[in-house]
Structure formats: C-alpha cells, structure tokens
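To assess whether the prediction recovers the assembly geometry, we first specified each molecular entity separately, as shown.
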Amino acid sequence: MGYTVAIVGATGAVGRTIAAKLEERNFPADRVKFLASARSAGTRVQFRGEDHVVEEAVPEQFDGVDIAFFSAGGGVSKGLAPEAVRRGATVIDNTSAFRMDPHTPLVVPEVNRADLQGHSGLIANPNCSTIQMVCALEPVRKKYGLERVIVSTYQAVSGAGAEAIEELGHQGADMDGRGKSDASLLPVKDASRHYPVAYNAIPQIDSFGKDGYTLEEWKMINETKKILGMPELRVSATCVRLPVVTGHSESVYFETGDPAADEAGIRAALEAAEGVTVLDNPADQLYPMPLFAEGKDDVFTGRLRKDPDVPGAFHLWVVSDNLLKGAALNSIQIAEALIADGAVKGEGADGTRQHLDGNGHAVR
Amino acid sequence: MGYTVAIVGATGAVGRTIAAKLEERNFPADRVKFLASARSAGTRVQFRGEDHVVEEAVPEQFDGVDIAFFSAGGGVSKGLAPEAVRRGATVIDNTSAFRMDPHTPLVVPEVNRADLQGHSGLIANPNCSTIQMVCALEPVRKKYGLERVIVSTYQAVSGAGAEAIEELGHQGADMDGRGKSDASLLPVKDASRHYPVAYNAIPQIDSFGKDGYTLEEWKMINETKKILGMPELRVSATCVRLPVVTGHSESVYFETGDPAADEAGIRAALEAAEGVTVLDNPADQLYPMPLFAEGKDDVFTGRLRKDPDVPGAFHLWVVSDNLLKGAALNSIQIAEALIADGAVKGEGADGTRQHLDGNGHAVR
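The predicted structure of the complete assembly is given in tokenized form:
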C-alpha cells in the first residue's frame, strides 16, 4: 500500500517540480493532494496524466496524510506544519522556518541521513545553495577533514520563484534598454528597493541580518555547520543574484587541514560520491555551467585546483539545479530515505501505521 | 604646446573609450592619430566634433608621436610597441604583452605612481579585474597591512570586445530559447568550444594556464603582487564571465594580519582613497552593482563586513566599469601622471622634448 502525500505550495516553482519528480521517480504515492493559499485554490495541475484541482491548505487537509511537502513560504510552514504533524503527517519543510531549530533534523540524505532517526515528525530541507555545497564538501571532509570554507555564489532567479523568472524574461529581452526596465521583485519582494537583475549582479539575496551579512549568507554559514555536524567549522559566504534562470553556481575555497591532500585524492573522492558528477577537463574546456545543469539531478563539480599558497587548500566550482537537488529532489530523497528506513511517522518497521487527529486520537 | 597622441586599436571597445575620455578630460593633445589593423583602416571615428579616418598601424606612423595608447591585442603590442618606443613615443600598453616584464612598470596611478620613474618608454596598464581590486586593497594595505587575498570575479562581456556585446544581445533577447543560441566568441574566440553567456555563468576567462588556473586568474594573482610590490602576498582568484554588458564585480576576501583592524577603520580608509567610492548601507539596500557603475569613473565598494572567524579579515564587494578604470581611464591617468611628473619620454622637466627615428636619431 502506498502513501498519501500532500504538496503545500503546489502552484509554485518548487511545488510543481516536486509533483513532476514524484511522477518521474515512481514515488509510492497512492494519492497526492495539491494544496496552496486561498488565492491559488482552484488552479488545475497535471499529475500522472490527470487534472487535479488545487485546494486551500487548511489544517483539516492533513488528516490521513502520511507525507507532506511544504514549500509555500516560512509563514505558511510555521502556521500549518505543526498542524500537519499533529494530525500524523511527516512534514518535509522546504522553508527556513525550522532549519535551525535544534530539535528539527536538517538533512541532505547523501551527507547526514542518520540525522533522520528519531525525528518528531518534521524534517527541514536545507537552503538550495547549502545543499549543493555540502554534497561537494562531505566527500572531502570524510577523506581529508575540513577546517574552513569561503564561498561566493552565483545564484539563479528561479530561487526567488516563478514571478522572478518572468520578470527576468521581460528585462532580458532588451539589452540596449538595460537598467530602464521595471523591477518589482528582486532582490526581496517586500523590500523598499528593487533592482533589475538582467545584465546585472545583485549582491543581496534575502534581507540583511546582523553584522552586514544577508540572511541567505547566514543560512549558508549556519546550515553548513549543522548538516556537517561541525559547529566549529569556519565558514563565510557572499551571496549574489544573477541573470540566470535556473542553476546556482558557487566558487568554493576550502581548507582540509591535511597538507597531504592532493588534487587526485579530492577528485577521486568526488567521483565516488553519490549524486556528484565531476566535469573537469581544462584542456577540453569542460567545467560545470548553470545553463547545462538545468533539469539535471546531480551536483556538478569542476575547476578543482590547489590554492597556490596554502597546503591542503583547494578551489572548486560547484553547480546544480536549484529547483531539483536544491529543493524538490532533495525533499523527495528525504521522503524516500524515511520510507526505506521505516521512519515515516506512525509507521513501524513492519509497515503498519496510524494517524492521529488534531486531538491525538488514532484515525486509522 | 600639446602632445601628439596615437590610439592603436581605435575601432575597438577600449580604443573608442580612450578617444571619448581624452576629449572629456581635455587631455593636452594637439593631434590624435587613430590607428588599427589593415582590416579596420578606412573606418571613420568622431573626435572633438570632427571625422577622422582610421589608418593602418605601421611603424612609420609613430614618428613624431609623443604618447601611444595600445589596445589591439597582445600580438600587435609585441610587434609594434617596441617600434613606437624606438621612434621616441612613450607607449601605454593595455594588453598583457609586457605586464610581467621586470623592466616594464605596471601602474595604477593611485597605487604605485612612483613606479613610473625611470621607465624605458613602455608602461603597462594592468588587467581590468586587477586594477579595480588593487584600488580597493591599497588603502587597506597602507593602514593595516595585507597578508592574503581570495577573489571570485563576476565579469562583463565587454572585456571580450565589442563583438561579445553584440552576441550577448542576440542571445539575451530570447530567454525561453536559452542555450540554443549561436555562440562563437566566448569564452575564448580562438578556442575549440564556445558557450552562450546569456542566462549562464562561464568559469573560464582567457585560456587555461598551468595548475588548472586560467591566464586571467594568473594575471590577477601575479599583477596584484607586482603592483602592490608584495611578491610574498598570498593571492588566489576564480574568474567567471557573466551576462553583464559592462562592469566587473568582485567578491574579495582579504586578511590584514592586524587583529585590531575593524570595519570602521577600513571604511574610513576606503572613503579617503582617491578614485574609490564607498556605497555601503545595508539598511537602505545600498551596495555597488555593475548596471549602475557603467559609465562611471570610480571604483565602487560595499558589503564590507568582518569575516566571522578570522580576526582582521574582511569581505568586500568591488565593482567598476571595466572599460573605464579597468582600461581606458587608467591608461589616460598614467599619461596624465607622466606629463605631471615630467616623465614622458624625451621630455625634460623643463618641457623640452625630442623624438628619435628608427635609427635613434633626433627627428625634432
């Protein structure tokens, strides 16, 4: 018997990609409920060749749901995810709402799958930029150790949603009129200033937090430490939005602390890593680029080279589809890991399960 | 009495900008000769309200020339710049041909103007990415010292010439067809593979050199050490081409080695620096961006913040117009400094000058 799955934020860029990937991967779902805000309710979406009507995400929708994917913004997750958990669903939340909560596992299955054990019904999916970086760093850490990371990002607009893609399309159509186009979304929809992203580079993603860093930069710093289980790791980040539709790129500097670490060894570790593809041949001009990572599941790595001055330190270029491994795919991989490990809530290793209603009573 | 000036590469993106800036700055030129390859000879250019015919750059053209600006590629400079010098011209070369020659000064006037003294007729203008970075780093170095630099660049296509701007225009017009557009110029015109730059990020600028670094990256590493006069400085670079028309951006990490260095002190040093504008107010979303640096002379700095882990280390976002301070403007500022310092070749501090023909004889 398969699972009842809910997608909250079903009309958004990530929600649509989750549905597409569930279908493509033959995820064991008997039923999928498409949920969104009242504004988007009534929209029709295609799934397994059939039309489905998107319904409003209200607490009662989660009765009988086994696994709920949330990607409708932090506010929706804060309000509804605990309701869904209370009703027996295991929630995989793609917002930043619970990521740094010490009781919520923050998981990239290839890196810290063991953290799923003993969860309380809520698992957080990390920030897109963080996921692809830790996928590349974990094989290095396991082999040589890891002491320091400095990353500068080159991020796509689809990370800011479907509207941002549309706006880039309008702005990009007229290079000669660059800078004069309307801008109403980036860098932050609710902020007071908006800048065109076409033919530009905006060094702000999300709002500014403390010490001059943006929240996106703090996410990369703090989530990396949590996922790798290294609170003492030295990490810093600069996050920049670019006129790229989909595919985040990262210029990553890392110190292993092991002077014996060499390029061949790092390359071998990356080549052996699950979900990582090495695309690195300067002589043939082969390296990852966002335009060619779009639509692909893997994290692509290239431009690996020794730092000229610091033994055991390297530079790496890391590219991945921010809607796939950065969001939808990783969320589904978390669900698949939960299923394989018998860790979906209310489900024993024997496959039996029960759901609870809002009052904690079994509903089946 | 003013100077006779030659512009070699007068039809290119940098050559045209040099002419425009000579005019705008009332450069003391009695006569300007517009020179280019045989292919471009005959083209007409506007200068001081008059049409000028571009002539072929051959050695004889430099007889009687006081100052020659070269920006027609390294091959042309290697062949013709020594000829121009032999004929008495002071050459300011905007290519990489002579930059690392130990006998050739490599100059950013705000940083190492003193290196102009005792030149032998040839002065090299640094790489665009290097110029804007050292403008930002020198005030820091003077105040606190400098031990280490790690830079990731976000570079505009105009650094690859006027044709690259046109190609981006075609590619950018159709976001939905991204990746399917013709690409015949970037990353390197003569290389075997070309990639679309629109809606992409290409982690290759110039050819690959040794150790997996590109020549652009080695330029940033080696030129920075030479200009700052710090052969022991630890520098590394990752250079990336973006769908931006004009304006290079850089994410710069630097260690001063002085644990007492603080943001306020760095900011004060940048604010006091000639040619540097600080645009840095997170609360008001103010930071430099290439779209707004285009056409402006200054090097813009912002997003200054302490590294979270290393005392005396900081992150800075540096943006400048790569055709202006990165090329044409810096070349003209070198010429202006030579004039002010009485260091134009064959010219004494009393303003008298003489030119030599190809045989070393005075021609006037």
